[in-house]
Amino acid sequence: MTLILTNANLIDCVNEGVTPDATVVIDDDRIAEVGSGAAAAPNATVIDLRGAFLLPGLWDVHVHPEYPVPPGMTVAQETANFGRALSLALTEGGVTAVRCGGAAHFMDVAWKRAFDSGDVVGPRVFASGYFLTTTGGHFLTSGQARECDGPYGFVQAIREQIKNGVDHIKLNLTGGIMGPDWDRHWHSFFLEEELNAAFAIARQREFPVMAHAANPDAVKSALRLGAHTVEHGYIMDEECVGTLSESPTWYVPTLAISHLTEGQAQNDYERRWLAQRNIAQELQCRAEAAADEHAYWFRRALDSGAKMALGSDIRPLREAALLEMGLWVRDGATTWQTLIAATRNAAELCRVGDQLGTVEAGKLADLIVVAANPLDNVNNLRQLQMVIKNGRIVSDKRETAIS
After folding, report:
1. Which class is domain 58-349?
2. Start and end residues for every CATH 2.30.40.10 domain found in the chain
3. Which terminus in the chain has less CB density within 10 A, N or C?
4. Taking 50 as the threshold, does the pLDDT of residue 285 lie above it?
């Protein structure tokens, strides 16, 4: 099957800016040609995009299922709800790939396999299974944590994660903003021998470590031990930023966790999200207390040239990446930097940058079409017209897209 998209304003996420009057030819699941003007092929489906903006599908590299789980909900229903949320992220939000940061019962592995089969419509999923923390560790109320103690407790848990089909190992090295009183982001939870053992077995089995690290000591430990990514970094210091800028480790700042409160909301999208989430005032106060420092170190990392990608850590998934992108721009990133973080960089972080993340010949055809230029205003990504995954149109809103 050949699909030809013509008359597009192309943002390929390779060269900064917009290429007008672009044509993209898709053969089966791959981009065969990127050019200009008209193109033809026998039995091809030709779609005139009429000047709409064509770009790679969006990514969110820090997601979770909904939590806490309502009393009485079965594992089957919880898993089904997560699958529906992932599908809506694709068709309603243009998110063609996600990386999970913790999911109970390995439901992310299950949905990864279901979506990869092609029989069910959903994004590409990079699965973590449970996140691993210590007894009395971070965010136990989510139901997505496995508590471990001692070096061999972590070794056993990581081996079980691998056995169950995960893509990476999530370790929660510190507390966080969203948690009980004893779960604080400036507290580190692992003993040195636990850290060394956990990273050693992950390294031996060649599984990347996704490190929840919210204070300088934890960030430095993660960098020293070879974490593939550092998540959050609510508090850092100049040594953290300097090491990040010279390191192969990626930084995923998740600004939404500290920035989305009633006192900080700046537009209707954020106010509507807050009304729906109904976050406890105590947690909003904790977020606001952390927000300015989080924003400062985000900007320092950005200016340093550290490798950064976009992850939200919030729900619903169809809104999450879009809200996070707005916060990147608010905190000083350009729209181009933000878009690259949610496309090319995210694909590279997930080690599939040679296959995804840009609009180039030979790559898999995961694409979105929006009505207006997101480089002018990142919120224009909300004007979603079409989503293509693996060369197949999975959502077409061209007649109903809201301007």
Report:
1. alpha beta
2. 2-56+357-396
3. C
4. yes
DSSP-derived 3-state class of residue 253: coil
Cβ atoms within 10 Å, residue 305: 11
Angle at 399 between CA 396 and CA 403, to 5 degrees: 100
Q: Is 119 helix (H, G, I), strand (E, B) or coil?
A: coil
pLDDT in the model for residue 241: 98
Name the amino acid, one letter, at 128. Answer: S
Contact 144, 131 (CB under 8 A): yes
Distance CA 346, CA 159 (A): 26
How high is the pLDDT of residue 41? 77
Weakest mean pLDDT among 30-39, 236-245, 335-344, 370-379: 30-39
Residue 43, pLDDT score: 86
Q: Are 291 and 101 in contact (CB under 8 A)?
A: no
Intra-chain end-to-end CA distance of the chain, in Å? 31
d(CA 252, CA 236): 13
pLDDT score, position 402 = 39
DSSP line for 270-332: HHHHHHHH---HHHHHHHHHHHHHHHHHHHHHHHHT--B------S-HHHHHHHHHHHHHHTT
Cα–Cα distance, 97 to 113 (Å, whole number):
13
Cα–Cα dist 265/262, whole Å = 5
Comparing CA positions, the residue from 91, 9, 102 lying closest to residue 375 is: 9
- State both tokens at 236: 């850092």
Domain 2-56+357-396 bears CATH identifier 3.40.50.2300: no
pLDDT tier at 12 (50, 70, 90 boundaries)? very high
